[in-house]
UniProtKB/TrEMBL annotation, chain A:
Residues 68-260 form the ABC transmembrane type-1 domain. It comes from the Bacteria. Keywords: Cell membrane, Membrane, Transmembrane, Transmembrane helix, Transport. The keyword Cell division does not apply. It is a multi-pass membrane protein. It comes from Cohnella silvisoli. It is found in: Cell membrane. CDD domains: TM_PBP2 (cd06261). Belongs to the binding-protein-dependent transport system permease family. This is Carbohydrate ABC transporter permease. The chain crosses the membrane at residues 12-33, 72-93, 105-127, 139-159, 180-202, 239-260. InterPro entries: MetI-like, MetI-like_sf.
From TrEMBL, chain B:
Keywords: Cell membrane, Membrane, Transmembrane, Transmembrane helix, Transport. The chain crosses the membrane at residues 9-31, 74-94, 106-126, 157-178, 262-287. This is Sugar ABC transporter permease. The keyword Chaperone does not apply. Belongs to the binding-protein-dependent transport system permease family.
């Protein structure tokens, strides 16, 4: 009896807490529908009059397409390179016979404990001397290199659970190692690959530090940096527009999150299993 | 069969690209980093060997020590306020119905999937002195005296930024804890509940000890995350007012990319990575030393 009441109270507390938790998000959405003068009114009130002008105005003064396209290029590029290289590497460490495979695995795992912030200065210079600073590749390659560690570790763990019989059957049928890998192995590890895609997407799409330091030219900046410059250039009366830009630029990640929430939570927590 | 797993060419083709890319962009830069730290370097040219001058400069700089102190504050706030809240929420969540669980995970996890830029801008609005929700809420409940220019006051700037940062990741840490709790076989604590143990007793005596490994893991990533804090500070206060809310990485960025003292920046980077390794090592060896098997 007492337990049931407690449970009811806790339930109510959690529901209220959940709404309170995302109150800042709700407030931003509301501001994006308010008239400029009304922003100064109570934050807890709905707009007196719902205004939709903020959205077209925001898109007119903020080059959303440019930053969005850049973000897509960075994310897709990083996902492709990391997954292709990472799955091949994880496979040859998990399956093939070579002396240094455990050394190679530990070496790549080093990336898990070297934060990108530490090498940003030499990385900045390296990109310049390779003449890829301020190109798309100049961000995709470092992103992929840093993403490889976790990707290799997770795929390696997954390969160890895949029985060898599948490949052995393929070899009997006259498949060579490449055919076996691309036609038999990759389809089997698809669930793990899907988790990796979501994980790398979330990390790359929201990455700020490297993009902030390494992209010097507007035309190569991804969404988070473009947003920052837009916000810095706006004054208080334009909060409605700021709110609108925030909503528009959050839609892609929110959609991905709503669609794959389990996958994202699993992916982000899967690291815990590795330790 | 063995020719399949011993194929040298395939081995090379499968392993070399990863090793090359990883070495070039992750491992190799550590070496020039050490070299630069002994030189006067403006970002383009080496302007002469200066020995340990850069190290002396950093170790005698009050801004550097203040930024390190700020990082310590953020770590303490997140470890002793943020993590206990996440853990408590995870424990409560475990007792709730699937519907509530799903709802609460969704809402609390949402900030972690949004861009830092959006989160920072949102909290700038929350802390805004005139129309910000925080000051307005304080007036509404009659605590108008507590109103402040949150981000412009040297005393409240860093805690406000730390709060925004904490807010973004409490849900993520909660889900991490929750995943750990789920992996504990239910039979362990069902037995205790049948024996009449309450919520706190069950958790303190049974769940927490079994959760040590997860606690340790979350502790490591949250401490390292606090140490590398840069984004929220950069966007919410720009290290200010003055240099009141700078963190170590902000100081690195400021010295290297604003003052063009790349040698000094490299010294900060080296001290930073040493500190990170030491702290990770300490947590791994001092926290939860007995391994639990279940």
């Amino acid at each position: 009896m007492v337990r049931n009441i407690n449970r009811g109270v806790l339930k109510a507390v959690l529901i209220v807490l959940g709404i309170g938790w995302i109150f800042p998000l709700i407030w931003m959405v509301l501001i994006s529908f308010k008239k400029p003068g009304e922003v100064y009114g109570s934050p807890f009130r709905l707009p007196k009059q719902w205004i939709f002008d903020n959205y077209p105005n925001a898109l007119k003064s903020f080059d959303f397409t440019l930053y969005f396209t850049n973000s897509v290029i960075y994310s897709v590029g990083t996902i492709l390179i990391t997954l292709i290289l990472g799955s091949m590497f994880a496979y040859c460490v998990a399956r093939m016979n070579w002396k240094f495979k455990s050394v190679a695995l530990s070496y790549v795992a080093l990336g898990l404990i070297i934060p990108a912030q530490v090498t940003i200065i030499p990385l900045f210079m390296l990109l310049r001397s390779l003449h890829i600073k301020d190109t798309h590749l100049g961000l995709i390659l470092p992103y992929s290199a840093f993403a490889l560690s976790l990707c290799v570790m997770m795929l390696y763990a997954f390969f160890r659970t895949v029985p060898k019989e599948m490949e052995e059957a393929a070899i009997m049928d006259g498949c060579n190692v490449y055919g076996a890998f691309f036609r038999i192995i990759l389809p089997i590890i698809m669930p793990a690959i899907a988790t990796q895609i979501v994980l790398i997407f979330m990390n790359t799409w929201n990455e700020f530090f490297m993009a902030f330091i390494l992209t010097g030219q507007e035309e190569f900046r991804p969404l988070p940096i473009g947003l920052l410059n837009f916000f810095v250039g706006r004054g208080t009366p334009e909060w409605g527009m700021i709110g609108a830009v925030m909503v528009v630029s959050s839609v892609p990640t929110i959609l991905v999150y709503l669609g794959f929430s389990e996958k994202i939570e699993n992916a982000l927590t899967a690291g815990a299993v590795l330790k | 069969m063995s020719s399949f797993y011993n194929n040298r060419l395939a081995l090379f083709l499968f392993s070399a690209p990863t090793l090359i890319l990883f070495t070039l962009f992750v491992v190799y830069p550590l070496f020039p980093q050490i070299r630069i730290s002994f030189f006067d370097h403006d970002g383009i040219n080496y302007n002469g060997f200066v020995g340990l001058d850069n190290y002396r400069d950093v170790l005698h700089s009050s801004e550097f020590w203040h930024s390190a102190y700020n990082n310590v504050k953020i770590v303490l706030i997140s470890t002793f306020v943020g993590l206990p809240i996440s853990l408590l929420l995870a424990l409560v969540l475990d007792r709730m119905s699937p519907g509530i669980r799903r709802y609460f995970r969704m809402t609390s996890f949402m900030p972690a999937v949004l861009s830092v830029t959006v989160i920072a801008q949102m909290w700038i609005a929350m802390f805004e002195p005139r129309f910000g929700a925080l000051n307005q809420a304080l007036s509404t409940v009659g605590l108008g005296d507590l109103k402040r220019i949150w981000l412009g006051d040297p005393e409240t700037a860093l805690p406000s930024v730390a709060f925004a940062f904490l807010w973004q990741y409490i849900g993520l840490n909660m889900v991490l804890f929750y995943t750990g709790i789920k992996s504990i076989p239910k039979t362990y604590y069902e037995a205790a509940l049948i024996d009449g143990a309450g919520f706190f007793q069950t958790n303190v005596r049974i769940v927490l000890p079994l959760l040590q490994e997860v606690v340790k893991f979350v502790l490591v990533i949250s401490v390292i995350g606090c140490l590398r804090q840069f984004e929220h500070v950069k966007m919410m206060t720009n290290g200010g007012p003055g240099s009141a809310s700078r963190t170590v990485i902000y100081e690195l960025y400021y010295r290297a990319f604003n003052m063009y003292e790349f040698g000094v920046g490299s010294v900060i980077a080296i001290l930073f990575v040493v500190a990170c390794l030491l702290i990770t090592f300490m947590i791994n060896n001092l926290v939860a030393r007995e391994k639990m098997e279940f």
